[in-house]
Design a protein that fits this description.
Strand 12 and strand 13 (372-376) form a beta hairpin. Strands 8-9-10-11-13-12 form a six-stranded mixed β-sheet. Strands 2-3-4-1-5 form a five-stranded parallel β-sheet, with helices on one face. A two-stranded antiparallel sheet has the order 6-7. The two termini are 28 Å apart. The protein is globular and about 65 Å long. Helix 7 crosses helix 13 (262-268), helix 9 (162-184) packs across helix 10 and helix 15 (283-298) packs parallel to helix 17 (377-385). 43% of the residues lie in helices and 17% in strands. It has 17 helices and 13 strands. It has helices at 7-14, 30-38, 51-56, 60-65, 83-96, 112-121, 144-150, 154-157, 162-184, 190-202, 210-217, 221-233, 262-268, 274-278, 283-298, 342-351, 377-385, and strands spanning 19-23, 43-47, 71-75, 104-108, 126-130, 237-240, 256-259, 304-309, 315-321, 327-332, 355-360, 366-369, 372-376. It folds into two domains: 7-130, Rossmann fold (3-Layer(aba) Sandwich), CATH 3.40.50; 141-385, Winged helix-like DNA-binding domain superfamily/Winged helix DNA-binding domain (Arc Repressor Mutant, subunit A, Orthogonal Bundle). The longest helix is centred in the middle third of the chain and has 23 residues, at 162-184. The chain is an alpha/beta fold.
Length: 387
């Protein structure tokens, strides 16, 4: 079993809050981690996708009151969002009897109903933990390329071969299209959404042109944006917003788009292994998205992430604005050469960034210029974790 770095955060949160929600896409390892945590506690596990477990909660107060001294794990909570009102009453009643923390561990595969429902009824009673696919800090350093090719979903990453991993990811996408998405948006056309995924894969790391994509799919721009919102809420797609500041420059206003897991991106593009990826036009954009997801898994809480681009060509792939007022400018290179573009120099002058890095595919760290450092992905993530 690969040790997940968020485990300590979950256990700390359980010792601080009566309820903790682990939010992450399906098959990211939430259930495995929750059951592992439960081994050290008196606990009960309920899978709300199981009719049998849902039947146990026909009278949820009667059932859950019997387990006041246990950690109750509620998996796939979106199946019974009405439970949140019940949990609120049980938490408040338990607090009066001294049962203040570690009551419920809630697992959800999407942010849609889960965040809205819990935000309305459990305010001040719940902590949130975002669980991403595996990151570069959770594997061996020599496995980073495999992580890039296969993606971070544990079953895919640990596949017996590249072919097995590829087929696992292909089944994952099919399951989402045929089973998962209809749970959240029953009127969504699976065939149209599959075509949209493939189009978005070809647009990896580029500006979102909603009108062009909508025209290609023969749907309205409003419908297209609703589909993209769904993929964002399912934690499968990222819209990286542009940096905004009053600096007297003409800034790009459209977001950049990314399939969040590089392994899913490669399946959508029919890329099976490193040999095929190395010669593919998407290589640079694939590496860029992979680096961005890993970096954002390590940033301090409250960090704002954007990109910077002007009409004159000044550009920064990733801008991190931290709560301590530091501004990190990061350029991403897929090769071993960490030579920043001229536009990067202009851009860091524009935003007055405090730390400037060029992340490359090698392992060395060295100065490029007086205020610019070449660095590996893993070393950059370690620096961020120390903040």
């Amino acid at each position: 079993m690969i040790e997940r770095k968020i485990r300590l955060n979950i256990e700390k949160s359980l010792n601080r809050q009566p309820a903790v929600a682990i939010i992450g896409p399906r098959q990211v390892g939430k259930t495995t981690l929750a059951l592992d945590i439960a081994e050290n506690r008196k606990s009960i596990y309920l899978d709300l996708e199981s009719y049998r477990d849902r039947d146990k909660l026909e009278d949820p107060i009667l059932f859950l009151e019997r387990y006041e001294d246990s950690l109750v794990i509620l998996d796939e909570i979106h199946r019974m969002p009405e439970l949140f009102q019940t949990l609120r009453g049980l938490i408040d009643e338990g607090r009066r009897r001294g049962k203040k923390v570690g009551r419920f561990l809630i697992l959800g595969s999407a942010s849609i109903d889960l965040l809205r429902q819990s935000g309305e009824t459990l305010a001040g009673r719940i902590g949130y933990i975002d669980m991403t696919p595996l990151t570069a800090l959770e594997i061996k350093p020599d496995q980073v390329t495999d992580l890039w090719i296969r993606g971070g979903f544990p079953d895919s990453f640990l596949g017996n071969s590249d072919e097995d991993s590829f087929l696992i990811r292909k089944d994952f996408i099919r399951t989402y299209l045929e089973r998962e998405i209809p749970q959240f948006a029953p009127r969504t056309a699976a065939e149209t959404l599959e075509r949209l995924w493939m189009m978005l894969a070809h647009c990896q790391g580029s500006m979102l042109n909603a009108s062009r994509l909508a025209s290609n799919l023969s749907i309205s721009a409003k419908t297209l944006n609703a589909y993209i919102d769904l993929l964002v809420d399912l934690l499968l797609f990222r819209r990286l917003k542009p940096y905004h500041a009053n600096i007297g420059k003409r800034l790009v206003k459209s977001p950049k788009t990314y399939i969040r897991d590089s392994g899913l991106l490669h399946v959508l593009l029919n890329i099976k292994d490193y040999n095929e990826l190395a010669g593919h036009p998407i290589t640079g954009e694939s590496w860029e998205g992979f680096v961005i997801e890993n970096i954002l898994s390590a940033v301090p809480l409250g960090t704002k992430s954007t990109f910077y681009r002007t009409s004159a060509g000044a550009e920064i792939d990733l801008v991190l604005e931290m709560v301590n007022s530091e501004i990190w400018a990061i350029e991403i290179k897929s090769g071993l050469t960490a030579k920043p573009s001229k536009g990067f120099y202009h851009a860091i002058d524009d935003i007055k960034s405090t730390h400037n890095f060029v992340i490359h595919a090698g392992k060395d760290q060295y100065p490029i210029a007086e205020n610019i450092e070449a660095i590996s992905l893993i070393d950059c993530m370690r620096l961020l974790e120390q903040k």
